[in-house]
Fold these 2 entries.
Entry 1:
Amino acid sequence: MKVSAEILNLVPYKPGKPVSETKREYGLTEVYKLASNENPLGPSPKAIAAIQNSLLEQHRYPDPSCYDLIQKISEKWNVNPRQVGIGNGSNEIIDLLIRIFCETGDSILTSQAAFVAYQVCAQAARVKVRTTPLKPDLTMDLKAIADDFFRNPTAKIKLIFIPNPNNPTGTIVGGEELNEFLIRLGNRDDVLLVFDEAYTEYVRDSKFKEAAKFFAQYSNVIVLKTFSKVYGMAGLRLGAMLAPEYVLEYYNRVRNPFNVNELAQVAGIAALEDQDYIQASQKIVWEGLDYFYSELERLNLPYFKSEANFVLFDTKRNANICFENLLKKGIILRPVGNYGFNKYLRMTIGQASENKKAIDAIEKMLTEVPEIM
Ligand SMILES: Cc1ncc(COP(=O)(O)O)c(C=O)c1O
């Protein structure tokens, strides 16, 4: 069977290397994965209890409407339940939004080095991807994005993706720049502004504004949330979106009726209620980030200050060789050459002991891999 050029040339999303695979390939017994921006605390104890209570009901189909979870989410972000959609991870929501709102030949618009899933999902749907350059401090240029939209009507841009904070840069947009962006593009009926907020709970910069705060003001704003990060449920696959009601009507027609399993639904409700766990998750990340900053400075490795649970740093070397070297030492980080950062690695914040092991391994690696001048 013949497939389209887009499918033929599709580079699949490359997830972080699994611990089991690394152990097997390198004959290691101890491996630490700081590669996929997961929560190092394990799941919330309340979520674990909710899953255990639900185990005996697993011969039943899950609630296709996710009723209880949607009630909870609507209370948390102060929106109408009819404005909440649930997905099998926010990745599924990204995929479906593109399939719903873009036809072949339409475009999505985002920034250079934005989260790679937008590109992968768009290409799979035969939709074009436009990007604007990052600023030198690796923040997204919202003015350039808005300019691109207005200058290119023939590109038929249907969705604009703003990951805030962005992965893999860890940077945010906010302040006056965001206000101007919303003034220029908000309330239009020909484009949807998708704020992807996978990491907002970790943000410390006071300039940041959660999109749920201006959601009601603009008829074309969509907010994506994930339970994979601060809520510690990456393996259960749960994401949510706040969106105008008409978007939800299309979304609920297109999505698989049982896209979110019952364990994810009950765990999601419990995790949202577990304030102690959320605070502990934030604390471990903030302490870990500060530790990494001071250690990277000691090792003379430049880094970008992060508002998420990972940090992007300059190895000053071929990052793929550094990645392989660290794997042999039992440390899995994430090379980000696919985003154009050939000398950089992305390192997720782990437990304090894991962070220390990573820094020890990096320090040793620096003496083994030659610097690129
Ligand atoms: C910016 C961003 N958005 C969305 C996601 C996808 O998260 P999920 O696990 O909910 O599919 C990620 C995952 O790393 C991410 O970094």
Note: The pocket of pyridoxal-5'-phosphate is lined by residues 37, 89-91, 115, 163, 167, 196, 198, 226, 228, 234, 239 (CB under 6 Å).
Entry 2:
Amino acid sequence: MLDITLIGTGGALPLKDRFLSSCIMKYNGANFLFDCGEGTQISLRRQKISLSRINTILITHCHADHVSGLPGLLLSMGNDMRTEPVTLIGPAGFARILHSLLIIARELPFELKVIELKHAHESFSIDGCKIDAFRVDHSISCYGYTLEIERVGKFSPEKASLNGVPMKAWGLLQKDEQVEFDGKIYTRDMAFEKARRGIKVLFCTDTRPLNVISDMAKGADLMICEGMFAEDAKVCRAEETKHMTFVEAARLAKAAMPDELWLTHFSPSLPDPHNYISVATNIFQNTVCGTDGMYKEIKFKD
Ligand SMILES: [Zn+2]
Ligand SMILES: [Zn+2]
């Protein structure tokens, strides 16, 4: 089961009741924070989410509305007695910016493991989740992410016996694709049925629409995507600032067909995005305007 909470749904500037871009996903005790705009720690506390349990922070890009909450958050995590390392992932150049921000947050009681993304597409396996980072099109280097919980197929003792897999290797194949036992190699497909549908969520903000976004959102249970501008008349403004309109985000969802689309990262000139939701639902029906604190629990389908 994966829990998702939108921590902030504002783009560029916060509003009185809307914090800046951030989202947290929790799986099996591991907490993944996506983006950390100014005030993220306040919104996390409002949602009663423990700061010290955040293991991994994934940054889309180094604009202030996505990173300026980091020093305060990390200081508070230290104050909450966290001692385990925290992994931070961001685009090339992120480490320099992080260390500059940390001039005002020195002496953290935990190690920071910083990973800079160098390629157009990179994959990681973290705390039982598959993380994919894919480059998008913004005014500076920017990445979207998917978090996926893959699920092996059901174990079949008949298949294992038929393929001569010794019983002692059955448990090992649950954990590894292939194992060596008594000098012989056994692969998972020799003892397990086809992989079952897992859980997949996409988080993508600050970009023009790209095919890679809909490609990455295919098969997703939830697609969280920016909708900086509501009216399609603002498409020129979206092009200039390298953002998207509701229509553009909904078209990407229509191409990908996730179970649901949540729009986020709303322009401060858009205090009530809900008034425009039909612009998106006319294209992709299962679209919802994100709000701070919006929560969803995704379970395995079978
Ligand atoms: Zn932004
Ligand atoms: Zn930006």
Note: The mean pLDDT is 95.
